Amino acid sequence: MIIVAGLWENGWLNSNVEYQQYKHVMKAYGVDKFLMAPIEVVKQDDSFPVEQYDTIEEILESFGNIKKCFLEWSQDFEDNGIPHVDLKDYEHPKDVMYVLGKSGTNNCYLMTEDDDAVSIVAPNNDYSLWGVTVIGIVLYDRMMKS
Ligand SMILES: C[S@@+](CC[C@H](N)C(=O)[O-])C[C@H]1O[C@@H](n2cnc3c(N)ncnc32)[C@H](O)[C@@H]1O
């Protein structure tokens, strides 16, 4: 079971476009569920609906039993004192929820000791990536290691 949960980049990206970008990568790589917060008016396809929640906290509580893999920029993990692994060294759990943040914030404050913390390195690590770019890289990495 692969679940992807995130926060809309509202204010930066149009949610209809963001949904379409997420939808294609998730369908291509066989993601089972797509969950986002907060609730936005989004044009979506019946073939791949996005389940929306008021907050990311509600998402995490609703799916308490699945392993969480928090994906954050290494700088954000370091600022919050959270040890993390580089994606290339990460062994993906069979059942997992990949958790993404948004610009101007991150989800480090929601992490527990049971959660995994994973970052993608870039040649210029002064820049973080959009969530939709991150999940494409992560799903490709998962496929290559399976
Ligand atoms: C635009 S980034 C936000 C980064 C930063 N917190 C900020 O305020 O600009 C949106 C989300 O993409 C994910 N992300 C961005 N860069 C990443 C990286 N290098 N490795 C893993 N995840 C990343 C994180 O989930 C992050 O919260």
Overall CATH architecture:
3-Layer(aba) Sandwich
The CATH homologous superfamily is termed SPOUT methyltransferase, trefoil knot domain
Query: How much helical structure, as a percent, in the residues?
Result: 25-40%
Domain tally: 1
Mean pLDDT: 97
Largest sheet: 7 strands, parallel
Describe the structure.
With 146 residues, the protein is α/β, with parallel strands linked by helices. It has a single domain, classed as SPOUT methyltransferase, trefoil knot domain (Alpha/beta knot), CATH 3.40.1280.10. Helix content is 29%, strand content 19%. Strands 3-2-1-6-4-7-5 form a seven-stranded parallel beta sheet. Helix 1 packs parallel to helix 4. The radius of gyration is 14 Å and the shape is globular. Bound molecules: S-adenosylmethionine (SAM).
